[in-house]
Amino acid sequence: MIKKVISFLCDISPFLAVIILWRLQLHFWNPGGILAIIPIFFYSFVRPVPWFTPFAILFCFLIDYNFDTKLFWTTMYFIAYAINGFQYFIDLQRADKNAIVPFMIFLGFSLFILMIFNLSWTVLFRCIWMFVWVSGLYIPITIFMKKVHADD
Amino acid sequence: MNQRTLSSRVTKLVKSAAAAAAVPLIFIYVLVSKPDFYLINGLGHIVLPAAHFVGNVVTWPIRATGEAISNIYNLSTLQAENKRLQQELDAALANKNACDIAVAENRRLSNELDIVHATPQSVIMADVVHDTVALHHSNFLINKGVFDGIKKGMVVTSVDGFMAGMVIDVGGEFSRVRALNDADSSIAVRIAGDEVYGFLTGDGSANPEIGLFSRPEFKAEHGMTVITSNISGVLPNGIMVGTMINGRDVKILQIDSISRVKVLEFNTNNEYK
Asked: In angstroms, what separates the C-alpha of B135 from chain A's closest C-alpha?
């Protein structure tokens, strides 16, 4: 019985991680619930989970709603999904350090686009902070996720 | 085995093609549905409350712990705050008589000058349930929506009458309010006690700025009071907005400091002279 409960919790952990990180938004530490983009990226491209893609799209939409960016993160997710599916040069599932470099490119490019359309010192500093903070948390969070699934 | 690999590759390609095809469709939608975005806002009205409900259930232990820590901290500072509030109350009471006289005088002058001030037709009290400050945007959600009579464009103020923002999206039981420091916010204002007008424009920073004044030689000074103006016909006249910090920046109400607001509906038709 306990094993079944643990197995169930492991199965739903990708979805829980996204919900928790999206809901626990804080002005400085998690603006707009942006940290949810870490499990969204990880479980979509690095360690794909069945039925996660529609859920990821839904939460990209919800991050957009928080950011008041009309379908921006959703579009970036679609672009990343298409690029990842069409290419065979980089296998994100076997990339080093849980594919942090592709994640940083994805995040950096997205934040750069948001920044150039609303350029000001405040937005620049917030973008830099968000990039450093979210990228910095990517490794610990993904290591934790791997431990949950006993991948390591 | 090979067939399986081939079919999984084909499936992956089809999914990727679908994702790629969605991108231009989104671009077209965003271009076409500007500025109302009925579809995504409508979707948000359904998805957001559901996601909040699930999120609240799942994160309840974490938030309860956070609130307990916050309450312990608040309790520890309660005595000092009580003392400070007592002093502020004494000072406010000392000014009350002078204010009452000034209000009566102002009313008499308004009557003599035939100035008609708009009064709100309805006031709806609401709680701030959620606030979001992300990059250049600053919004918050209140727990009253279309079922409570809230409409897009209504003015939201703090309980003590400082303008907090405007309703930009209304769901069944919630509304989204755009704060004054949001990059998309631009409201007509004037300097209280002077006929100098301008537009207060948000840029995502804590203090929005007034770029240009109607009188170019006018120099704003620290501490000047900024109130709303009806020159653009959108806002009613005379709602407190904030105080000037320097020649451009205005100190406004910060959304993380408000928990309860008033939503006001004004009739701006023929109410102003």
From this structure: 5
